Amino acid sequence: MRDVLLATLPGVAVLTWLFGLGTLSNIIIASAFALGFEAIILKLRRRPIAFYLKDLSALVTAILLAVAMPPGSSWWLIAVGMVASIIIAKHLYGGLGYNPFNPAMVGYVVLLVSFPQYMTLWLAPEALASQGALFDLHTLGQMIIGAAPLDALTAATPLDVFKQSNGMTAEDIYQNEAVFSHGFIAGAGYEWVNLAFLLGGIFLLFRKVFTWHAPIAMLVTLGLFAAIFYDGGSSSSGGSPLLHLFSGATMLGAFFIVTDPVSSATSNKGRLIYGASIGALVYIIRAWGNYPDAVAFAVLLMNFAAPFIDYYTLPRTYGHTKAKRATRTENS
């Protein structure tokens, strides 16, 4: 858990640099609610509070949900997300190690379905910079309590733009949409955020926190689907492979969400199937579904399927076949 927290630092730093202090306020508020809810539930369950808080799992859930939410989200929105993540998705099923679904993604989906108008108000880096709001504590305070005029500071994300620009070629979108004016492949800011989380993911791979199977399978499958259906950028194109790989929550999902050891598949073969299925679902929902960034939905759908994958992919117990043959020989 400590390594995961350290690995999020590059992504948090880039988010703060591009979108202002709103990311840090999300993290602080989410962490406070997560630790508070965790302590309350542990007290009610008569578990040692200090012992379980030290495992840092609540902080990891808080930070993953915080960075997935729009910077500067209202305090009550974060609180609702942490209730869904910590109380419902984690402790309702028995606590750490027993949750069948990724807690952070449960919280995110609950918020996205319940409060879509707040979860889709992503800040525009160039708008914040031009208004001097990147590090304006007064504006941030208004955003946290829900009093800031967010409509003047928000813009569509690159994935939103591609989904809403029917009839335009990819070249037209890149030339005419402001979100791509300061970016190279995936829009202003978003590609740098994904590169930062990719760096954190490489650190976790180096530390052997998880194996490469699930994240690489997800990224390869997502890129493959995007390449097959890109068709050179026609009006029906869903975006290039690079756009899908370096926009939205792709790298955060691949290295920090898909790799959750509790809610994912357990064998290497199972992780390949699990990761590849998530990559396919991400593209399918992005291209033909109602949500432009589908990482959370894809992960939760495959959390359902993880036990089924494990049933057919877990390696046979060592010596099981030999013991069975030996029994047949004795009986004959």
Automatic annotation (TrEMBL):
FMN phosphoryl threonine carried by residues: T157
Principal place of residence: membrane
Cofactor(s) required, per the database record: FMN
E.C. number: 7.-.-.-
Listed name of the protein: Ion-translocating oxidoreductase complex subunit D
Transmembrane segment boundaries: 12-37, 49-69, 75-93, 105-124, 184-205, 212-230, 242-259, 271-288, 294-314
Any single biological process term in GO: transmembrane transport
Membrane topology according to the record: Multi-pass membrane protein
Keywords linked to the UniProt accession: Cell inner membrane, Cell membrane, Electron transport, Flavoprotein, FMN, Membrane, Phosphoprotein, Translocase, Transmembrane, Transmembrane helix, Transport
Summary of the function given for this chain in its UniProt record: Part of a membrane-bound complex that couples electron transfer with translocation of ions across the membrane.
HAMAP family, A to Z: RsxD_RnfD
Family as reported in the entry's similarity comment: Belongs to the NqrB/RnfD family.
Annotated gene: rnfD
Places the protein is found: Cell inner membrane
Cellular component aspect of the GO annotation: plasma membrane
Pfam families assigned to the protein according to its UniProt record, in alphabetical order: NQR2_RnfD_RnfE
Annotated organism of origin: Marinagarivorans cellulosilyticus
Complex formation: The complex is composed of six subunits: RnfA, RnfB, RnfC, RnfD, RnfE and RnfG.
